[in-house]
Write a structure and sequence with these properties.
alpha/beta, 39% helix, 14% strand, binds ligand G3I
Length: 376
C-alpha cells in the first residue's frame, strides 16, 4: 500500500498547482465548500481508482481541500470486491478506507446488495443452475457480514440496497427479487444492522422524483419501520439531466422521504448537459454512438454553460433550503474528464457534468454554492 504521506504530498502539490490558475472556470472559491456548508450537510465526492491509488494528485488535492465525505465509485461493488465465491479482493477498498480515515472523512460504503455489477457466480451453482432461495440468502448474508465486519467502526454508512425499483414503482426483476422475493430487502437491512450496529443504513436509488418510485420508496421505509427494521436514510441519486426532473418534483420526493422520519442524502450528483437518451442510470442500458447526440466535443458554448449553471443552482437551492432534512450531498466524481456520463448511455461522448472542468478548475457554480450557503 502507498504510504499516506504520498497522498498528502500529492494533495499539497495539487493545491499549489490550483492556486496558480485563474479565469471564469478556475477562480478558486473564497472558502472551501466543506466549510461554507458546515452545519448544513456534509459535502462528499466519489473517488475513482486513480484517486484511491494516489496517482491523481490534482483530484486528491481537491478532495482533501473541498470535501468531508467520500464514497468509492467502483471498488466496493460485488464484482470488484467479491469476484468469486469465497474470494475477496480488499486491496483498493482498504486503501480507500485508509484514505478517508487519514483525512477525517465521513466514509460511505457502496453498495452491498445491487443487481448490477453482480458477478455471475453469485446466483448460480457449480453446474450453472440458478441457486435456491436459501443459498442466495446465505450468500447475501456472508457478503454483507464480511464487508461490514471488516470495516466496522470505519465505514460510517452503507448503501445496503441499491436500485430495487423501476420508475413506475414496481419491483425490479433482479435475481434477488426473483429468487428470494421482496423480503430480500428487509433481510439485507436486518443482516446489515447485525453486522455493524454502529453504521448508518441506507436505501439508494435513481429517478426518485418519478411519482411511482417515490411512492414505492415511501412504502418501503414504512414497511421496514413497521417491522422494527432500522433504515437511517434514503439516498436520492442525483444523476440529473437538463430535462429531468424538475427541482419541484425532486423536492417533493425529498419532503416525502423526510416525512417518514429518516434522513435524506443526495447521492451520486451530476448534471449531464448532453441531449438525454434515457432517464435510467442503469449502466446496462447502452446506446450506439451518434455524433448528433455529442454536440460539445470542442468545448461547451457559453450559453449552454450558463444554462447548466443555472439548473444546478436551482437544485442546490433546494438542497440548502432543506438542509435540516439533508445529511449529505455527494458529487459523483470531481472532474468532467472522469465522469461516467461521458460513457453513458453511449461510449465516448464529451459531457460537462461535474463541478470541476476538464482541467480540474472549479466552475462558477462552486463559488455560487459558497455564497448561497453563507449568505445571511
Ligand atoms: O476498469 C475497466 C477498464 O480496465 C476497462 O478498460 C474499461 C473498458 O470499458 O472498463 C473499466 O471498467 C469500467 C468501470 O466503470 C471503471 O471505469 C466499467 O466498464 C464500467 O461499467 C464501470 O462503470 C461504472 C458503473 O457504475 C457500473 O459499475 C461507473 O464508473 C460508475 O460511475 C457507475 O456508478 C453507478 C453507481 O454505482 C450506482 N448508481 C448509478 C451509477 C451510474 O451507473
Amino acid at each position: 500500500m502507498k504510504p499516506h504521506f504520498l497522498n498528502s504530498l500529492a494533495a499539497l502539490l495539487a493545491i499549489a498547482a490550483m492556486t496558480s490558475c485563474n479565469g471564469t472556470n478556475g477562480s478558486q472559491p473564497t472558502q472551501p465548500l466543506k466549510s461554507a456548508l458546515e452545519g448544513k450537510f456534509l459535502i462528499g465526492t466519489a473517488m475513482n481508482t486513480a484517486q484511491i491509488e494516489g496517482t491523481d494528485a490534482v483530484g486528491l488535492g481537491i478532495i482533501t481541500t473541498q470535501f468531508n465525505s467520500v464514497v468509492a465509485e467502483n471498488c466496493m461493488k460485488t464484482e470488484k470486491i467479491h469476484p468469486e465465491e469465497g474470494v475477496y479482493a480488499f486491496d483498493l477498498a482498504d486503501r480507500f478506507v485508509d484514505f478517508g480515515e487519514a483525512h477525517g472523512m465521513f466514509i460511505v460504503g457502496h453498495a452491498l446488495v445491487w443487481h448490477s455489477q453482480l458477478p455471475a457466480w453469485f446466483t448460480v451453482d457449480a453446474q450453472g443452475n440458478e441457486v435456491t432461495r436459501d443459498v442466495l440468502i446465505a450468500r447475501m448474508k456472508d457478503h454483507i457480514f464480511t464487508l461490514m465486519e471488516r470495516y466496522k467502526g470505519r465505514v460510517h454508512g452503507w448503501d445496503v440496497v441499491n436500485e430495487a425499483f423501476e420508475d413506475d414503482g414496481s419491483f425490479r426483476q433482479s435475481p434477488f427479487y426473483r429468487i428470494i422475493g421482496e423480503e430480500y430487502i428487509q433481510m439485507a437491512f436486518e443482516f446489515a444492522a447485525q453486522a455493524d450496529p454502529g453504521a448508518e443504513l441506507y436505501y439508494n436509488d435513481f429517478s426518485t422524483a418519478a411519482p411511482g418510485k417515490r411512492e414505492a420508496i415511501v412504502s418501503l421505509v414504512q414497511n421496514l419501520q413497521a417491522a422494527g427494521v432500522r433504515i437511517d436514510a434514503v439516498g436520492m441519486q442525483g444523476h440529473i439531466t437538463m430535462d429531468f426532473p424538475t427541482p419541484e418534483a425532486f423536492e417533493k420526493s425529498l419532503l416525502a422521504f423526510a416525512a417518514q422520519g429518516v434522513d435524506v442524502m443526495i447521492t451520486e450528483l451530476d448534471l449531464s448537459v448532453l441531449p438525454s437518451v434515457t432517464r435510467s442510470a442503469d449502466i446496462g442500458a447502452r446506446v450506439r454512438y451518434d455524433s448528433e447526440l455529442d454536440p460539445y466535443t470542442q468545448g461547451l458554448p457559453e450559453a449552454a454553460a450558463k444554462k447548466w449553471e443555472s439548473r444546478l443552482e436551482s437544485f442546490f437551492d433546494v438542497f440548502i433550503r432543506n438542509s435540516d432534512k439533508i445529511s449529505r450531498v455527494t458529487l459523483w466524481g470531481i472532474s468532467d474528464k472522469d465522469s461516467w456520463r461521458n460513457d453513458f448511455p453511449m461510449l465516448g461522448r464529451t459531457d460537462y457534468a461535474l463541478l470541476y472542468d476538464r482541467n480540474d478548475q472549479p466552475k462558477p457554480i462552486v463559488e455560487w454554492i459558497v455564497k448561497r450557503a453563507t449568505q445571511k
